Amino acid sequence: MKFDTPAGINPIDKGRVVGIPHDRIDGAAKVTGSAPYAYERHDAAPNAVYGWIVGSAIAKGRIAAMDLRAAEAAPGVLGIVTHANAGKLGKGSMNTAPLLGGPQVDHYEQAVALVIADTFENARDAAKLVRIDYTPEDGKYDLAAESLKGVMPPDSFGTPADTKAGDFDDGFAKAAVKIDQRYTTPDHSHAMMEPHATTAAWNGDRLTLWTSNQMIAWGVGEVAKTLGIPKEKVRLVSPYIGGGFGSKLFLRADALLAALGAKQVGRPVKVAIARHQIPNNTTHRPATIQRIRIGADKDGVIDAIGHEVWSGDLPGGSPETAAQQTRLLYRGANRMTAHRLVTLNLPEGNAMRAPGEAVGLLALEVAMDELAEACGVDPVELRIRNDVQYDPEAGPQRPYSSRKLVECLRAGADRFGWDKRKAKPGQVRDGRWLVGMGVAAAFRNNLVGKSGARIGVDAQGKVIVETDMTDIGTGSYTIIGQTAAEMLGVPLDQVIVRLGDSRFPVSAGSGGQWGANSSTAGVYAAAMALRAKLAEKAGYPADKAQFDDGLVKFDNKSQTLAALAGREGLWAEDSMEYGDLDKRYAQATFGAHFCEVGVDIDTAEVRVRRMGGAFAAGRILNPKSARSQVIGAMTMGVGAALMESLEVDTRFGFFVNHDMAEYVVPVHADIPQQDVLFIDELDDKSSPMKAKGVGELGICGAGAAVANAIYNATGIRLRDYPLTIDKLLKAQAA
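Structure tokens predicted for Xanthine dehydrogenase (734 residues):
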């Protein structure tokens, strides 16, 4: 099915199942422990043995020699995989560095060996006996020190490095009010509950990987390319994923080494990347240095806006595209954005929840707050004055398909009690606490991609849906089930959803906030094909048949789905493909974050007292799970604002705080109250679902609202994240 004209009235609009809050249909399996995760596939591979990854002890250089004798002689050891015996390996196009290092070492903790043993403990203990001699080389590990060497990177996912409109330099020079500030964000680590894990087994020349992977089709292609085998010989199975946030978009060392280990020992092998290895072995969100310049008139109306970003990655890597939202969020005839990429020998930088906007808005929305103060305009009103209903770089010829930022700001402010905020900082006290409020806009592009599904009805009238779409804790099972139930006119409990298997039709996968809208649109396409088959079998016109209560109806006639399906069942398969609507219309999701903090007058301890947000993201497919996504994202925003930072040892090139004891993330006590409001919106140019993504929108701007609240409470403006106690105390003393 092709989606190339705006959606009209369709079966989803009935809203009997879609758009209604539902518990997750996979919830019971998860809380009872019966959901099979990648490392737990005892059912599929009951005789599996265990692998433990040995990571490089240097950040750059070469392996001079490896002594495996003591490890090979250790109890229970069955084999050891290294570059010397792994055979010829390719490199996936989505991996910046090889997943198995040697003899060259590209970054600290790069996998250089896998020790395989009969038990987990034996594999772990034997790994400590591997002796490696290295020849270290000098590397580059300090973004600030190397920033002047940054170069313009190639396009990233179709996004140009630099953009221009009008004459920024002239517009900024003539502006009555100017903001020119630098902001920094540190490296961030994914901290999902389930580590990267895989169980691998060979059956002849066919490989099956039960793995934790967000993008099944991508994974199949990358495995095949890396191992040099046909894609048809590779099967990925990933029905349940314990979180990913982008770290599991691509093939990682656990999957490759499990496959190599299983081939070597002739038995299934399971590999999990240990928690302390994840920050340095896998991917992370890169640090940024950002310069923002805004020129406006005395009323705060923007005429010139410029955003420059410096970030680093391994050779061949990509930038953190933190100026993306600045191209699209606010008005201004004179515009400029630029990204510069610095070569660093730190572990790979790559996608982490809302790449680009998550850290870009940490800077832009603080700069907007600074502009509001400089102009003497309320921060909410300033953002409303600079709203624009079209792509400000392209002009009015590319309007937004739907844009309700102003509605989010107004409704969110009213609900939060913004009118009680004191404009002058440091005016509100509650005992020992200085209290302040902050606001920030939320923005995230709306992306869609081709997505397929197979849907059928069995002899009992049950509806079955199969697609390789994954569920990373986001509720994919439920919204896909809701879509099928809506389209076929059955209750949700009459739908069986099967996900995460490369034998199923290829979906868009989970990433970039495109998963929910795209995958349900694929189910919509398959369901429309099945509806046509059912109507034809019933002898009814397909465009007039109604599907209600397990029946196919036309005029006063009806037949049950079960009867039409027959003993063999009836199936249909299709995919949703997209035309050029996203070129003709700017498409994005919007929101407004509000935060109230307390800052201790003596210790500078910051406490988030409450948060609120209003969001416009098209049709909300399941308000219950969507709310969960947003409050989780808001919580991550608090982490980015106040505590999260991978600390780089710039002498030796690694992240020092590489465990959950020292990489600090928010906990329940840090987030006492969160309120979420969804603004009514249908976007008929997004998909037949008239929905958009929401899973990443909630992190975008959340941290800036915290930063702006701290300023309102204390009068201290910090631009170097995270906003920790030591920085507040230092500024307070100054």
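The domain at 2-35+448-581 is CATH 3.30.365.10 (Aldehyde Oxidoreductase; domain 4).
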